[in-house]
Automatic annotation (TrEMBL):
The lineage of its organism: Bacteria, Pseudomonadati, Pseudomonadota, Alphaproteobacteria, Sneathiellales. This is PhoX family phosphatase. Residues 447-473, 599-631 are annotated as: Disordered. Pfam families: PhoX. InterPro entries: PhoX, TAT_signal. It comes from Sneathiella marina.
Length: 631
């Protein structure tokens, strides 16, 4: 079995070690830049210059508003091995990794932690993005199963590694997407076993390749000589949903599953740009399934790193890989309709120094019409930001990039965005669009390489613009407004909604923006979603040491922000060593579903069952004691 770099290393650190950026940057004048940024930051969220740029739309100072829109008292940071919600709210477990979806499945076995066969009939691991689809009074919950926690799912092995083919297949089956009908039972949501909607999509489910890359030579493999049918999806992180009722699962760190049986093989420059190399992340899939061996099947990785469209109401449907939306480490897919009905999808590439993207469909959405293939054809853009709070979407075409075809741009999208000079970002995670105005937010989670190292393509990562701090370990949320409120416009204005930091120990830019204080501080914003009332929910995937630079922040958490005032308040704290990710609502909006991913990823949690139980990724339902709506 291939040897992973480390037991507890993140995907990002694995990539960094396995495939370091090409050269060190001779970075100049960090101090001076940061000092000027500090003035910029401490002038509050409206940021001096940006207030002029944004004019009357700039944030109203907190003190100028009579009353906060938040109806709860802030939850203090904590490091407890449970979920904490404000007084007046309650939570319950809806489902967790390993719960069977059918009555002929097997209840979770904490000794074996399941088999390949049991996992195929059960909820996958590491739930992430999710969406709920109401259908004739029924509730179909769809959620990504990003990856498996090796030390937990293989906790029955001394090595904490897959040791035979069944172990490997258990891992493959723990990935992908779960579709499950949920029902209320005694006031709590739970899975409806044997519902005709229940489905597991895994690393082995056939998927149609659509869009520009379909049939291209780079997509052809020995098993699929036409390049039209890929097998499986994995590392599905954030999600999207379309107005025509489909679910979008976004393939993120797809590279960590490929390895080479010949150690001396030198991966191509294109493979290196995507982090595909000779070592996998410890999954050992190539030992059971040869297509993961890049020395034998070098084009197989080109078939992953896409947005996958799934019809949640038809369990027999073939998911579709939408290559027109580009290939990179997709975080989520935030879809809005332009005024004329064209579909606009905002997309982040979550890697240090990679880019922010926008897709615009060729055709228009038609209410009640056939919209099934709107994501098959359109134009892809990458974002360029200026220090003057302006921005531009740069189209990625053969003419602008010098690449040979749209197919090549769809497969090697990072190279295309580098070619047009897009802005290298601090790891774009979720993008969220305001429900009632043209204003879009992106979480830039952190980037320790900012101002220090280029990205994997050699693009510089200077301090400035929407990435205002060197060695950015806290993250920030950037927002922009397209010109004339038109999502089709290629011009926009931007500012920073919040710059995370620790004002208890820093006095400079690392203290964060004015809407961060010792009571609500957090690090590494990741999940972002607006509720129907226009409040922005912020989920974190950060350092939970509660020490040093992160002292006072406690466990990962969920906060809520008011886009009008900049006010941010902590709503929920997760259990130990978890990340909070994934958010959706019941049809009546009285329950908010929230994902608790990888509790105890380093061995220090027994969430949700307590005692000495095996920690399990969980979806919880949160509701108000008074039965009112949750946003
Ligand atoms: Fe899977 Fe970028 O988070
Ligand atoms: Ca994420
Ligand atoms: Ca993250
Ligand atoms: Ca995660």
């Amino acid at each position: 079995m291939p040897t992973p770099v480390s037991d507890e290393i993140s995907f990002d650190d694995f990539d960094e070690i396995n495939n370091p950026p090409p050269v060190e940057t001779a970075f100049e004048a960090i101090t001076e830049t940061v000092l000027s940024r500090r003035r910029f930051l401490r002038h509050g969220v409206a940021f001096g210059a940006s207030a002029l740029v944004l004019g009357s739309t700039a944030l109203t100072p907190l003190s100028a508003r009579a009353e906060s829109r938040f109806k709860f008292k802030q939850v203090p940071a904590n490091a407890q091995d449970t979920v904490t919600v404000p007084d007046g709210y309650r939570w319950h477990v809806v489902t967790k990794w390993g719960d069977p979806l059918w009555s002929d499945g097997t209840e979770f076995d904490s000794v074996s932690r399941g088999t390949a066969a049991s996992q195929l009939k059960a909820v996958g691991d590491n739930n992430d993005g999710m969406a709920l689809f109401p259908e004739g009074g029924r509730s179909i919950l769809v959620f990504n199963n990003e990856y498996v926690n090796r030390r937990i799912i293989y906790g029955n092995r001394d090595s904490k590694r897959p040791e035979n083919n069944d172990d490997v297949n258990k891992g493959k089956a723990g990935h992908g997407v779960t579709v499950a009908e949920i029902v209320v039972d005694d006031g709590k949501w739970k899975i409806a076993k044997d519902s005709p909607y229940n489905r597991r999509i895994t690393a082995d489910t056939p998927m149609e390749i659509t869009g520009p890359a379909r049939g291209h030579d780079l997509m052809k493999t020995a098993k699929d000589p036409q390049g039209i049918l890929a097998k499986g999806t994995w590392n599905n992180c954030g999600n999207g949903r379309t107005p025509w009722g489909t679910y979008l699962a976004c393939e993120e760190n797809f590279n960590g599953y490929f390895s080479s049986s010949i150690e001396s093989i030198i991966p191509s420059a294109e493979m290196k740009r995507y982090g595909v190399g000779n070592k996998d992340w410890g999954y050992a899939w190539a030992t059971e399934d040869e297509r993961f061996d890049i020395s034998k099947h070098p084009t197989e990785p080109n078939r992953f790193g896409y947005v996958v469209e799934i019809d949640p109401l038809d369990p027999t449907s073939t998911p579709k890989k939408r290559t027109a939306l580009g290939r990179f480490k997709h975080e989520n897919a935030e879809l809005v309709l332009a005024k004329n009905g064209q579909v606009v999808v905002y997309l982040g590439d979550d890697e240090r120094g990679e880019f922010l993207y926008k897709f615009v469909s060729k055709d228009q959405f038609k209410e009640g019409g056939d919209n099934a293939d709107l994501l098959e054809e359109g134009t892809l853009y990458a974002a360029k930001f200026t220090d003057e709070m302006q921005g531009e979407w740069l189209p990625l075409t053969p003419e602008t990039t010098g690449m040979r075809s749209q197919a090549e741009i769809s497969i090697l999208t990072r190279l295309a965005a580098s070619a047009v000079g897009a802005t290298t970002m601090d790891r774009p995670e979720w993008v969220a669009a305001h429900p009632s105005k043209a204003e879009i937010y992106v979480a830039l989670t952190n980037n320790k390489n900012r101002g220090k190292k280029p990205n994997k393509g050699g693009d510089e990562t200077p301090v400035g613009g929407p990435n205002p701090r060197a060695e950015n370990n806290y993250g920030q949320i950037v927002r922009w407004r397209p010109k004339n409120g038109d999502h089709l416009s290629n011009a926009f204005e931007w500012d920073l909604f919040v710059v995370a930091g620790n004002p208890a120990i820093h006095r400079d830019a690392y203290a964060g923006s004015e809407n961060v204080n010792a009571d609500n501080m957090f690090n590494s914003p990741d999940g972002l979603k607006f509720d129907s009332t226009g409040l922005l929910w912020i989920q974190t995937d950060g350092k939970y040491s509660d020490k040093g630079d992160f002292a006072g922040m406690g466990n990962n958490q969920m906060l809520v922000g008011d886009p009008e005032t900049g006010e941010i308040r902590r709503f929920m704290v997760g259990p130990n060593e978890c990340e909070v990710t994934g958010l959706t609502w019941s049809e009546d909006r009285k329950t908010m579903f929230v994902g608790i991913q990888h509790p105890g990823e380093k061995g220090n949690s027994h969430y949700p069952d307590g005692g000495d139980s095996v920690p399990r990724s969980t979806i919880i339902g949160i509701s108000r004691d008074d039965g009112e709506t949750m946003g």
